Amino acid sequence: MTNRLTGEQKAAILLLTIGEDAAAAVMKHLSPTEIRKLGAHLAALSSISKEQEIEVIQEFKSAASGGEIGVEGRKYVKTVLDKALGSGKATQLMRSLTTETYPGIDTLKWMDAKAVANLLRVEHPQTIAVVLAHLDPEHASQVIALLPEGLRSDTLHRLATMDEVQPDTLQHLSEVLEEVLQDRSRPQSMSIGGTKVTADILNRLDKSNGGTIMAKLAERDAALADTIRSLMFVFDDLVKIDDRGIQELLKDVGKEELTLALRAANNPVKDKIFKNMSSRAAEGLREDMEAKGPAKLTDIERAQQKILQTVRRLEEEGKIVVGGAGAEAMV
After folding, report:
1. Which of 108, 251, 264, 289 has the maximal Cβ count within 10 Å?
2. Residues 78-113, buried b or exposed e (16+ Cβ, 10 A)?
3. Which fold has domain 2-96?
């Protein structure tokens, strides 16, 4: 029976038999391309018969425990990828498991932001926008910050108004990049760009760069800028998280980081935080804030950004719910 299976299918079945921890350990040693190929086969599996299990394991000269293995492939591979790569990269890989791949574009996802920016700075803003749409928002924001100032607003405007890109366009771009990089594959994403992606990227920029870009976007397209603002989440929006969510957030935020971040927060945010702490902890935090000397605004904003990153992570993990669409202004 196994002679009808490809090597990748056999490898997927083997991973399903050895358990999530062992599978995660194996996948840590695979390349992104290998993980994606193997993950696609894992996600396609619904169940494995006893006969298939035994034959595959014998072929790999391993031992397997008995019993029928009933596995929901997609749910299983998400768990394995979470363990191997972390939630963020696992989620992005899961979205691409069953799509076409574009080798040149894919390579950029695994490159340092500075290297990507150096590569893209000579490209047309539309090309840069397509590339940014394929990166995760954190990576894309780092790349944007390293691009020449004249490119930033034009690129993000194109990204915000982008909807779909034809496969042949993506293929051509991939081939061009592949000639330069001579590296591996990247999944097709037919629905890319848009205001939400742009808002996610701007959320991760420092206030100075983000404010400048938003101002230029507003000059060019005020309605579009308003839409993007409505999708952004800034520090003042912590008041939109319910009390249980704030309590969950406080478990993951360090005291020094919180003390610094609250120094430039408005009163509603401070009240929200204090309300969800014990009276002793709240009093201690107030005393720390009063005792601290002057702090650089950049340090305060950095602390706020770290807390917002924690908010996004907890929201992705389903531990908190952020109420409302986002901030009404870039502050």
Report:
1. 108
2. bebbbbbbeebbbebbbebbeeebbbbbbbbbebeb
3. Annexin V; domain 1 (1.10.220)
